[in-house]
Amino acid sequence: MLYAAEGGGGAGGLTPILMIALLFGVMYFMMIRPQQKRRKEAEAMQSALGPGDEVVTIGGLYGTVTGVADDTVLLEVAPGVQTRYARPAIARVVSQADRSESTEIVEDADVKE
Questions:
Q1: Residue pair 57/45 in contact by the 8 Å Cβ criterion
Q2: What global pTM score does this model have?
Q3: d(Cα 26, Cα 20) in Å, to the nearest integer?
């Protein structure tokens, strides 16, 4: 009788593996995939920055983009006051400038520190 009870549990060894696979699947769709989507959206926003855009940095500083280089952005935070930030430091764009104007590219050598 004990032998018959052990023989019926053949599918019991597969259940923990299925539960672990289901857990990884839920974690992928609930955590990893949305985070990748947000990262791609942030990268697209940061690559589309141009002069005249009003932005907010991750530190909460509001400014207007006056120049863009490969990996830095030059912000005017007050009249005549310009600061340089890394592109990933831009949290969001408050308003975008009209893109019909020519965009000004600022080289790293032209940025005043």
A1: no
A2: 0.61
A3: 10
